[in-house]
Amino acid sequence: MKKPQQRMMRSASAVTAVVTVLVLAGCTSGSPSTTTADGRTVLKVYGWKGGEGEPANVAEINTAFEKANPDIELEFEAIPANEAYSQRVQPELLAGNAADVIMLDSNLLATWGKSGYLADLSSASWADDITPEVESFATYDGDVLAMPMEAIGVGLYSNTELLSEVGVTEVPKDWDGFVDALAKLRAAGHVPITLPDKAGWTGAMALLNAAATTVDEDWDEEFYRGDASFSDWKPAVEQLLDLQEQGLIDWKTELGEDEWSQGVDDFTAGDTGFWLQGAWNLGGVAEAGVDSRFTAWPGGTSGVDPNELLFVGTMWGVNEASPVKEAAEKYVDFWSQPENLDLFLEAENAISPFTSGTSPQTDATAEFLASYQAGNYRFMQTNTWMAGDVQTQMGSRLQALFLDEITVDEFLDEMDGIAKKAD
Known about the structure:
This protein has helices at residues 2-28, 58-68, 83-95, 106-114, 132-135, 160-165, 175-187, 201-214, 219-225, 234-245, 251-254, 262-268, 282-287, 325-336, 338-348, 366-373, 390-402, 408-422, and strands spanning 41-47, 72-78, 101-104, 139-140, 143-144, 147-148, 151-159, 191-194, 272-278, 292-295, 308-312, 315-318, 377-379. It has 423 residues and is an alpha/beta fold. It folds into 2 domains: 41-150 and 313-348, Periplasmic binding protein-like II (D-Maltodextrin-Binding Protein, domain 2, 3-Layer(aba) Sandwich); 152-311 and 364-422, Periplasmic binding protein-like II (D-Maltodextrin-Binding Protein, domain 2, 3-Layer(aba) Sandwich). The strands form 3 sheets. Strands 7, 8, 9, 10, 11 and 13 form a 6-stranded mixed sheet that branches. A 5-stranded mixed sheet has the order 2-1-3-12-6.
């Protein structure tokens, strides 16, 4: 019985030797995956912005980077966002062969930062310039792990032509004025508002928008300490239900409409007064010929300026295992420069995440930017109690509420449990 075992051991040793030779050969053969034939460094970048659906001027910035760095050959790949993106990148990070620079959001940063996949960028020239409210979204365990690219709004679109037609000369800033404008639009035969909610996203965003003004500004911190609960969100929930009760919207119908296709089609058709979506859609709305304004959800009382809702969107991180980390950091630094980042911000209609940065302004976004500069804003807490899939669960439970499957109090109790698990 010993001879076969000895043969197996010798065979295993031989295989080990071959594998070792192959690995060493790969390490010393000129690294064809990181160097071109003419000696330029190959830099691989992954992102969900920059594809056909969300070009965001990424191609223009990449072209400028290659022109400024002729010794680097950039290989950019656009990967669909959300689950498709994480399912592609996660296994590659685990295997050590992911792209050198990877696009992140706050959830991915926390997940991959905890696993040690992201390089520490704390010493980068731009790191100390990050806006204080944004900084926590770009850090993990005290280290800056990503360069934030934007602070972007989710807010209310208003069709100014329709509002003018029904005698509303300014976009409403309080709840009573908003309801009055909606009623006038309905009386004139127009669709007052479209809030497609098939995936639950719009419902969650509408609630967060309403809560930005109706919930105390210290609530997030108090909830984190265990000193607050979602019972404080009842007025915000009741605003959404009030729209239904006054016949200004039919939530059951909205649940059958897709927020990413039908919503924009409905609004750009020109017969809908209001719509809630992200600022990244402003370009498409303008191209459709709709004169719109992008503002905060008018959820407060008369004389009280509403708070707008912002979230820290895309960020660039460097793969800790990158064999060309110097080039990767050079790419991220390039994006941080205003003349480059501004191209992205203009495409997204977003706000600069840097204190010294500039933010693009149009007629549509002027009031939104003024509110930001006045401090009338709230950030989505995607790095604390909204981490993970809390937003998705919030949207799902709101759908149950709209279908009369649960009560308002039951919804609020459920959200306490959902958010505490994430926090």
